[in-house]
Amino acid sequence: ARVGIDAGGTLIKVVYEEKGYLHYKYYPISKEKELLQWLQIFHSPAQFILTGGRAEALKQKMAEAKIVDEFSVICAGANYLLKEEGKQRSEYLLMNVGTGTSFFIHKNGKSERVLGTGLGGGTFIGLGKLLTGKSTFAQLADLAGDGSKEEIDVLVKDIYESSSSPIDGNLTASNFGKAIFVQGGASDKAAALTNMIAENLMLLAMLLIEKHSLSTIVFSGSGVSRHDYFQTRLAEFSNMFGYEAIFLERGKYSGAVGALLSA
Ligand code: ATP
Ligand code: MG
Q: Which of 16, 19, 97, 113 would give a disulfide with 221, using CB separation of 3.0 to 4.6 Å?
């Protein structure tokens, strides 16, 4: 059987074949030992293909494994998942929100990483913890869903008040700009943080989409999975700019699937 492993900065994603089906699981970096134990009992013969920033480090602790570059396999993984989910597209911008965020262009049968930013899932849980004291992704994502970003952000209409503004009054004029005047609840801060990340990732996406004449954004990475408010904001910005937004249900595994397929 083939086993694809994407060892990222935060989570290790594993995809393996059994009876013709793919199975998916993940381990936090801190549970690497458990993964290695599971790999030992995994029925042999197995072929292990590793990818991600920590692939080299993981390989040292394994018997035999091949390493592939994640930038060159992630779109193949996304293509597979798109097809599985009945949403095949021949060209798109892939936004992979991991610990950090990477952007890929898939066009004319080729894939390329074109941009990256440190604004990503690590920013959400890291700054989220500093702002609210909560430190798990699930807690922070739930908080964000209950909050109102308007309590923390200065909106265009807050500045223009009654006079007519040259741009949509509901746009953000200043992320966290109200925090100098108000305390703000934990959920409001988590919402404002989520929105700040979504807005700025979408601004980068917009420039890339226009530059490469695309119209679809595919979202992957654990940073967007199971974070409803983040997905809602990303989808709203996509709509506003006239782009199609696709959230892969198995998007956490695009790198691991890509690695498996490369065997
Ligand atoms: P990178 O690709 O940047 O090296 P990675 O591959 O480990 O990192 P992902 O697994 O795609 O990244 O996403 C990690 C992010 O997903 C975290 O920063 C966090 O925001 C979010 N996340 C979702 N579930 C969890 C979880 N159970 N534990 C920690 N973070 C989680
Ligand atoms: Mg990753």
A: 97
